[in-house]
Amino acid sequence: MSTEVKQTESLFSKKNRKLISDPFNDNNPITVQVLGICSALAITVKLEPAIVMSLSVVFVMAAGNVIISLIRNLIPNRIRIIVQLVVVASLVILVDQFLKAYAYDVSKQLSVFVGLIITNCIIMGRFEAFALANGPWKSFMDGIGNSIGYGVILIAVAFFRELLGSGALLGFQLIPDSWYITNGGFYANNGFFLFPPMALIVVGLIIWAQRAKNTKLIEEN
Amino acid sequence: MNVNSNGYTYTFATVMVVLVAVLLSGASLGLKSKQESNVKQEKMQSILASVGVEVNRDEAQAAYDEVITKVLTIKGGEVVSEDRETGFNVDMAKAIKSSNMEREVPLYVANKNGESFYIVPMRGKGLWGPVWGFVSLEEDGNTVVGANFGHKSETPGLGAEISTPMFTDQFPGKKISEAGIFQSISVVKQGTSSGDYAVDGISGGTITSNGVNDMLADCLAPYAEYFKNI
């Protein structure tokens, strides 16, 4: 199966480690490739669903990449997109079923968005661009790297949205009750942060900050 | 072997579909009982919460059996069944489609510290999806003891606030009928509620608040006739 992988290359060689580290910064799926924005807007109102969503995507992407990579030489070229779709969809349904059985409360919060992992363009993108052409171990690393790169941004956005929109983190109230205007204080939650457009603005600010630091990403013109 | 020939493509697709079907139906069957018991326990939790009994999901069944003494099924003001399972299994989403006097709806009778309460299940429409809840009444079938609401996908921080104490704490002490005439409880603009028959809505969650308003009127009405005669 792994004919391309040189047996002498160690599992954590520099090249393999780059597969994991690249998507964090230089090639982040959300901030650089601008993929997976839809779910980044939808489930980042609170931190907890964002974390569970990230973990689900890590699982689906790593497992999916490995499966696709294992059967890459058996997949008929003409139906490869359908095969990829079947693999993601089955994995996502499995995740959904397990969440419903063992993490019921979280699965209620995520509701339809677990199903929407299927349409997450990052996953199909990695299957098509990477897993179809590389061995299982590399694909696994690539899957982990990209899904964590996605998850980190998701969690960062959710952090700001929950903190500024609800005055809480992971459901724990951080802003004291007495600060609120309704209780005679001076503070009010910013309701804007509860709406998807604000997530887009937060993502935009993150992209700005990232490009300011990492000048490699700035286009020539 | 030519992986791009028609024959191979068909074979591959067929084998893949069968394998995936077996895998997924296996997972679904294997996890079904656990999933269903989660849903059932959650429902018991909400029923109990409306009379102020807070339990973990694991303890819900035992507490439910202890606190809920009877489950009546009501139709047109008459009790049509006293079977616990029949009442518990009524699908409210279906029930609310028929008119007030036509529908068969459950009424839970609870006994807590020697006092008895009636618990009325409800279901209606919010902004993005269904909303539901349980309202508990004193023995007179008129004064509200507690209420809790759930929702499928209302906006967090706005409509979703209907399930927080900020909203539900307004209900205890409210009344649903005046001198035998059914009034329901209206959900009005925030800060304008007064009297026994209104509570404040959520500002910014107007459509959800209106949904709860309609749900209260719609789901309490079928019991009005029954409560009149107790």
Write structural notes for this entry.
The complex is a heterodimer of chains A (about 220) and B (about 230). Chain A is built from 9 helices and 2 strands. Chain A has one domain (about 15-215). In chain A, helix 1 packs parallel to helix 8 (about 135-165), helix 3 crosses helix 4 and helix 4 (about 80-100) packs across helix 7. Chain A has helices at about 15-20, 35-40, 45-70, 80-100, 105-110, 110-115, 120-130, 135-165, 195-215; strands at about 170, 170-175. A 6-stranded antiparallel sheet of chain B has the order 2-1-3-4-5-6, with helices on both faces. The radius of gyration of chain B is 22 Å and the shape is elongated. Classes of the chains: A mainly alpha (about 220), B alpha+beta (about 230). The interface between A and B is medium-sized, with 29 and 26 residues.
How many domains, in number, for the residues of chain B?
Answer: 1
- Beta-strand percentage of chain A? under 5%
Helix content of chain B: 25-40%
What's the overall geometry of chain A?
globular
Number of domains of chain A: 1
Q: By helix and strand content of chain A, what is the structural category?
A: mainly alpha
Largest sheet of chain B: 6 strands, antiparallel
Span of the ends, CA to CA of chain A = 44 Å
Unreliable segments of 5+ consecutive residues of chain A: none
Give the rounded overall mean pLDDT of chain A. Answer: 82
Q: What is the string of helix and strand elements of chain B?
A: HHEEHHEEEEHEEEEH
Average residue pLDDT of chain B:
88
The two chains with the largest interface, and their residue counts, are: A-B, 29 and 26 residues
Please estimate the helix content of chain A: 55-70%
What is the molecular shape of chain B?
A: elongated
Number of helices of chain B: 6
Number of strands of chain B: 10
Please give the alpha-carbon distance between the first and last residues of chain B. 80 Å
